[in-house]
Amino acid sequence: MRLVLQEFLSLDGVSQGPGSPDEDTSDGFTQGGWFVPHMDEEFERQAGTWLGTADAFLFGRRTYLNFARDWPKMTEHPFAGILNGLPKYVASHSLAKAGWDPTTILSGDIPAQVAELKRQSGRELQIHGSAHLAQSLLAAGLIDELRLVIAPVVVGRGRRLFPDGGAPAGLRLLSNETTPGGLAIHVYESTGLPEYGTYGAER
């Protein structure tokens, strides 16, 4: 399976708490819900297309607990059957059990276990949110594709997908589009380490 990251970002790179004011208030974050005003039918259509290519999901602990709390109750939502029914994996060193079936808890050497999952047959193993987990897997060279949905808002503070001191990574743009609500959707393929050059240098 290909490992694909889907992440909502503000224009200044914040990924924390896009969906509601109380989604993630860790470290005193008070700006939650910044993504919601920009959602529209075009984005919902694209999100549904992406979900249709998943054969399993991978989450960090915090994102998993939020999804596990909400999605089993949202049985009428068009995405509910996919999210509730497909296999799920949660990377956590503290969870003793997971109640959102079917879920498997991964602990110990997470990158090695994710690499083993990628060797299984299937289309996509999708990460939704889970920025800390995504950072470690990007550093390990395991993420094949990044689908970044950027909202036209500057949040000002909060946890970022690409923090200072993060691992360098080369990317190739596969596609980009905008929605009527102002979301910029950028899809990238991982290419390994970045390339460097000097402007104006003779070739």
Question: What is the string of SSEs from the N terminus onward?
Answer: EHEHHEEHEHEEE
The largest sheet, given as strand count, sense and whether it forms a barrel, is: 8 strands, mixed
Low-pLDDT parts are none
* Overall pLDDT confidence: 95
**Strand neighbour order, sheet with most strands:** 4-3-2-5-1-6-8-7
Q: What Rg is obtained from the alpha carbons, in whole angstroms?
A: 17 Å
Roughly what fraction of the amino acids lie in strands? 25-35%
Number of strands: 8
- What is the number of helical segments per DSSP (H or I, 4+ residues)? 5
Class derived from helix and strand content: alpha/beta
Helical coverage, percent range: 10-25%
Indicate the overall shape: globular
State the separation between the terminal residues, measured CA to CA: 39 Å
